[in-house]
Design goal:
One of its GO terms (molecular function) is oxidoreductase activity. It comes from Streptomyces coeruleorubidus. This is DUF2236 domain-containing protein. The chain is mainly alpha-helical. The protein has 15 helices and two strands. It has one domain. 60% of the residues lie in helices and 2% in strands. Strands 1-2 form a two-stranded antiparallel ribbon.
């Protein structure tokens, strides 16, 4: 539809073409594992969240935020960002060792969460066979300075390419540890609460997703958690096979699942707005 609002990123962005990929779900679980290794950040989640009682709801709220900021209108994205900033501004956490009380919207904590997400999305997508050139990968990182702004960060303080992202992780690594909260997240991701009748399904399907997401973490994360993982080359082969299988499911079937942001964007902008990997590099 001519003149329709393309949103914050638009169909010409790397973000638009990548975020409809089904491997984003595994990347999201990887991000949770990585984020839990920052003690101050994970305490903010554990002390303010009911994720154990509402795991699916939390997952869908995160997916809805990513979908809205990627494929929604500019107004919808800004509104979603304002809602997140307002919630974060009201939340605090306490360091059990020092008694220090701090806001969960500290820039350093927001930056960690952001970088863990972007690194996870990019790493899983590329290793699973989603073709991105190095230049496109750098564009992806740069584009997400905009999503960082939405949650309250100064875009000028956020990595703008892969080299800056690597430098950030090298700088922050001394602050990382697998404390009791991270162990609880690990246990939760492997065995999320579910109805007794669904336990076999959880063991067959979900555990494989969680294990693959964990395996795709950087080696230093495995060392901190103290759980081994297959060699990186083996994990990459597993990611490629999983990506191949998931991408065989027709996109329109996948996009019928909630929250359906891609279908709404195609109605707003026309069928040519359909995200697809081959559109990159045009």
């Amino acid at each position: 539809m001519t003149g329709a609002d393309p949103g914050l990123f638009g169909p010409g962005s790397v973000t638009w073409q990548t975020h409809g990929d089904p491997m984003m779900w595994i990347a999201g679980v990887r991000a949770l594992y990585l984020q839990a290794l920052h003690p101050r950040a994970v305490r903010g989640v554990m002390q303010n969240s009911d994720f154990r009682r509402d795991a699916w709801g939390r997952l869908m709220r995160t997916a809805n935020f990513v979908g809205t900021t990627t494929y929604g209108t500019t107004e919808a994205a800004e509104r979603a960002g304002a809602r997140v900033r307002k919630i974060h501004s009201m939340l605090t956490a306490t360091d059990p060792d020092t008694g220090e009380r701090y806001g969960v919207d500290e820039p350093g904590l927001l930056l960690w969460v952001h970088c863990a997400e972007i690194d996870s999305y990019l790493d899983v997508l590329r290793r699973s066979g989603f073709r991105l050139t190095d230049a496109e990968a750098d564009r992806y990182v740069a584009e997400h300075r905009e999503s960082a702004r939405l949650v309250g960060l100064d875009p000028g303080t956020v990595p703008a390419d892969r080299a800056q992202l690597v430098a950030y992780f090298e700088k922050v690594r001394p602050e990382l540890a697998a404390g009791p909260e991270a162990r609880e997240v690990d246990d939760f991701l492997l065995r999320p609460p579910t109805h007794p009748l669904l336990v076999p399904l959880r063991e067959v399907l979900w555990r494989r997703v969680a294990q693959l997401a964990y395996a795709s973490l950087p080696p230093y994360a495995h060392e901190l958690y103290g759980r081994p993982a297959p060699a990186p080359a083996t994990v990459t082969r597993q990611l490629r096979l999983t990506g191949l299988l998931l991408r065989r499911v027709p996109a329109r079937v996948r996009w019928q699942l909630p929250p359906k942001h891609i279908l709404r964007a195609m109605v707003r902008l026309g069928p040519d707005a359909r995200p697809a990997p081959y559109k990159l590099g045009r």
